[in-house]
Amino acid sequence: MKNQEFSPRESLERAFGLWWVIVLMTALGGIAGWAFHFLLPPVYEATAVITANMDYQKRALTQNEEDYIFNAAGAIGTSTKLENQIVTDAQTQGLSISLDQLKQQLFIEREQSVWKLHIRNRDPKVAAQLANLWSEKFFAALNTDLGHAIQADQIQAQINSINGSLLTSGPSVISPKTQATLKNLTDRLKQEKQSSQGIISIMKFTQTESATAPQSPVLYRLANFVLAGACIGFVVSLWVASSIKVQHHA
Hints:
Layout: H1 8-17, H2 19-39, E1 44-54, H3 63-77, H4 80-92, H5 99-105, E2 106-111, E3 114-121, H6 124-168, H7 176-196, E4 203-209, H8 222-249
Antiparallel strand pairs: 1-3, 1-4, 2-3
């Protein structure tokens, strides 16, 4: 009896000879993944919107500077500090949610100067409540940081005024009082800039849209389930087609 070596190429050629089996089972696998998705508990998505505007007449920005500022502002909305505030207020309002659960449910999407705050939850009313709570906290944090940015500009103007006066008065020794004033203003300027977290004074924020309870569930991860089912169906179809060919050959 002659031994035959296994050849992956020949096995695939035999399998693809029954192409209709592969197509059929791949399609059935995709349909099974689609059906499995709808057997899972529905997930609802609520969205609140915050918009930022800039007064470019007061200050010109490069594209890189603008992107950096918007990214810094978006980071405020997903900071752990802000998320802890949302969890605390949500629990006060009677919602049972932890920080880990909130992190899994929220995600932020930026379109130029617009932030869309998405919350996914199995309860549509809870999703809307959390999205609006997130919007309120985010909006308040942005305006708090904007206040620090305005303070920084005012302090910088005072420093510039003192330095300008020293230049116009001619070369002279700076008095200890002036030195102390400049040091105090410089320290305050550094602190206000750090507290502004990248926000600049020419920005203005608006809560453009509040979240409402969604009426229908989101098709969450539907494509993933369909793709996974199709892949499983494809692999199984190769095995079935190869088995049929082998039995027929025997």
